[in-house]
């Protein structure tokens, strides 16, 4: 990612890495600075705290009731935040930085948190 490299090594990496790789590194650093763990490290049925950038917001019907699904990306992976009974949450929109914590459920290689506690982060916190 950049740790343990000399100034010249970091500069060379910045010049040769593609934009997506550099953006992912920035997101991982911002997530860590927010006190969150990497999404790739989330384990089934464990409590976790994650932070990242909202990639998408979707309203789905679950058992006849609405649910808001938010894909949160931190540069290492994606966690889907599911808010049961909600169609909208003010401030949660694509591109927004969010920190969430709760119990993780992994099913079919999809990492999910149902009704997590969340915090809207300042724009500069996980987007660079």
What is the SS-derived class? alpha+beta
How many strand units? 6
Annotated CATH homologous superfamily: Nucleic acid-binding proteins
How is the main sheet built?
A: 5 strands, mixed, barrel
Could you tell me how far the N terminus lies from the C terminus, measured between alpha carbons in angstroms?
15 Å
- What portion of the residues fall into strands of 2 or more residues? 35-45%
- Proportion of residues in helical segments: 10-25%
Kindly give the count of domains. 1
Determine and state the CATH class: Mainly Beta
Strand order of the largest sheet: 1-2-3-5-4
Which ranges are low-confidence, i.e. pLDDT below 50, for 5 or more consecutive residues? none
CATH architecture descriptor: Beta Barrel
How is the CATH topology named? OB fold (Dihydrolipoamide Acetyltransferase, E2P)
Fold topology:
Elements: H1 7-16, H2 19-33, E1 47-62, E2 65-73, E3 78-84, E4 97-107, E5 110-114, E6 117-120, H3 123-126
Parallel strand pairs: 3-5
Antiparallel strand pairs: 1-2, 1-4, 2-3, 4-5, 4-6
Question: What's the short story on this structure?
Answer:
Residues 49-121 form the OB domain. The chain is α+β, with helices and mostly antiparallel strands and 128 residues long.
């Amino acid at each position: 990612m950049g740790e343990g490299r000399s100034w010249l090594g970091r500069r060379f990496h910045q010049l040769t890495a593609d934009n997506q790789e550099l953006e992912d590194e920035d997101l991982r650093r911002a997530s860590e600075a927010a006190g969150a763990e990497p999404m790739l490290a989330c384990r089934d049925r464990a409590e976790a705290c994650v932070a990242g950038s909202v990639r998408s917001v979707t309203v789905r019907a679950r058992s006849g009731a609405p649910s808001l699904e938010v894909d949160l990306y931190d540069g290492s992976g994606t966690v889907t935040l599911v808010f049961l009974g909600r169609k909208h949450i003010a401030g949660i929109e694509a591109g927004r930085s969010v920190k969430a914590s709760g119990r993780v459920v992994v099913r079919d290689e999809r990492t999910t948190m149902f009704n997590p506690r969340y915090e809207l982060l300042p724009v500069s916190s996980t987007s660079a």
